[in-house]
Amino acid sequence: MAYRLGVDVGGTFTDLFLVDDGDHRQWRVKTPSTPSDPSQGVLKGVSRICAEAGIEPADLANVVHGTTVATNAVLESKGARVGLITTQGFGQILHLARSQTPGPLAGWIIMVKPDPPASLADTREAIERMDARGNTLVAVDREQVTRVIGDLVESGVESLTISLINSYVNGAHEQEIADLVEELHPGFPVTISSAVLPEFREYERTLTACMNSYVRPQVAQYVDRLQSSLSDMGVRTEVDILRSDAGVMTPKEAARNPVYGVLSGPSGGVAGALYVAARAGFPNVLTFDMGGTSTDVSLCQAGEPTIGRETTIGQFRIKVPSVDVHTVGAGGGSIAHVPELTGALRVGPQSAGAEPGPAAYGQGGEAPTVTDANVVLGHLPADLIGGEMTLDVEAARTAVQKVADAMGLSLEDAADGILRIVNENMAGALRVISVQRGHDPREFAMVAFGGAGPLHANAVAELMGSFPVIVPPSPGLLCALGDLVAGFRNEFAQTLIKLTSEVGDASAILGELEGRAREWMDAQGIAAADQQIEFLADMRYRGQGYEIPVPWGDDLESRFNDLHEQLYGFRMHDTASEIVNLRAVGTGDRPQPELPEEDPVEAMLEPGTHARADLHPGTIVPGPSIITEFDSTTVVLDGYVAEVDRYFNVLIRKGS
């Protein structure tokens, strides 16, 4: 038997999803997360799920892990002390940044500029220089650089970043300095910018490389500790780590370049949503992941996620490939309040969090939340997580009554108002990734997951016109399933900056990029038959400050114009386009878990409350109804019908 395990660490729970590729059995476990040391929650979960499956840890053939260690290090400002070595004359690069302020008028007055990951005190300038074509103008002054390295290491920095001007064209000087660091201080963690982001724009390249150094020691220690502890338990396979672009990387790669995994949690959800939606026959979907504090949404076409080239983490915008996820501060713990000044009901972005949590949790929370409103309206049963958690209905009613009194409404109307507002907030996030980018949401299905997603999906889909709503089995653990279905992925780029008409034959550049991608996939142990290469061109109109990735092929300029018009509503007829970067994306498939499948047998139920475990493929549940399960609750509104498909998904459509 081949047992494959996906592990996703969240702020409150660590989710584990185990599948047996032999007879397609599945096991699911939710265990409390341990923020002080996330590996402890993972180890407890692995022990528990192996015991429930009746197997030994040594029987695990594959373990994939989505982790928030890098994310938390940035958000909590608990990363390493980073030393930066840059070209002479460019020591202020991280502080000059992009001179952007948060908003118009007096935004620059009230702005609190964040401290960069490498301070000015820990920045040194190296005597060297390359020109923009990669030719050496000034050779590396090894004696001076040796003094710089010694000064930084002796001062107490915990990792080093080497980011030199024009290294994106030729990284030889960066590599020479890195080799010198290894010679002087073997094993000291070093990041070179030409390896992390070999693209022009020195500020973004330097920031991304420094952010990699900032989280590198903590991630490396975590991965090493987790791998060692699992080995002590008897696990014989390596733990692959999920990347921000819904691919996976080996633990060695994760320890070396952890910046690629800063958003691995949301990407796991998108990967899992795509997998179940594609099996159900819906390649174009909006993903809707609603948790306790926030909701993540994404748009996917033709069975592929939308991959962005930049992502925001904390107050920094770094350039790493990641699933294009839009987040809004709306979740089950979002607090409802009525400001005295306006008297208008507001919901969020403040959240009750996990402690004390919604009033219904019975842990001292008193503020009315979205969860409390769902309890008042009967959308949530009194028992959750298989009876492990009991909700305090009276406490929820007392909390929501505060809103009712402030607005002169009945208790039920106040609860309904809370849900309507939070649903509009989440629909607004979906409009950002669909309507504002030239897509009609009515042409997309919606995959609902997360602990609270299925509670609100029917109502949100009604606002968007996105049907059917697809609620996969165990929606609260879909991110863990996404860890299992993700394949290997990496990108290799070279900056070009030439007019499209002047590029000519690019086969030599593409061949070099393909060679780098093949070399990487070979190193990951990916069989040649499982290797795929896709070529992209980052394009823009001449003089623009942003690019659009366009698949390489014929009529490149025409397809760029079409994409630009779709995204921004116009095309420029008298301005030439140019290619900024050429990119090769290497992917390697892994064995996919075989999930249950069964021929449908039609059965019609009455509206009401039903246990999902009692529903089989072909079962039809008309609204208004509630479908309960271990980790989530699905609401089917009046006028809608839910049907269980052959893959055990619940599909919600408008009733006839």
How do the helices and strands line up, and which of them pair or pack?
Layout: E1 3-9, E2 13-20, E3 26-32, H1 38-53, E4 60-66, H2 69-75, E5 82-87, H3 93-96, H4 107-110, E6 123-126, E7 129-130, E8 136-138, H5 142-155, E9 159-163, H6 172-184, E10 190-192, H7 193-196, H8 202-233, E11 239-242, E12 248-249, H9 251-256, H10 264-279, E13 285-290, E14 295-301, E15 304-305, E16 307-308, E17 311-313, E18 316-318, E19 322-323, E20 326-328, E21 334-337, E22 346-351, H11 370-376, E23 383-384, E24 389-390, H12 393-407, H13 411-433, E25 445-449, H14 453-464, E26 469-471, H15 478-485, E27 488-499, H16 500-503, H17 507-523, E28 531-541, E29 548-551, H18 556-568, E30 577-588, E31 603-604, E32 609-611, E33 619-622, E34 625-628, E35 633-636, E36 640-644, E37 650-654
Parallel strand pairs: 1-4, 4-11, 5-6, 5-9, 9-10, 13-25, 25-26, 31-33, 32-34
Antiparallel strand pairs: 1-2, 2-3, 7-8, 11-12, 13-14, 14-15, 14-20, 16-19, 17-18, 21-22, 23-24, 26-37, 27-30, 28-29, 28-30, 33-36, 34-35, 36-37
Helix pairs in contact: 1-8, 2-8, 5-6, 10-15, 11-12, 11-13, 12-13, 13-14
Taken as a percent bin, the fraction of beta residues is 25-35%
Mean pLDDT over the full residue set: 91
Q: For the record, what CATH class of the domain at 3-74 and 221-261 applies?
A: Alpha Beta
What is the fourth-level CATH superfamily of the domain at 3-74 and 221-261?
Answer: ATPase, nucleotide binding domain
- Which CATH architecture of the domain at 3-74 and 221-261 is right? 2-Layer Sandwich
* Helix content range: 25-40%
State the low-pLDDT regions, or none: none
> What integer value in Å does the Rg equal?
26 Å
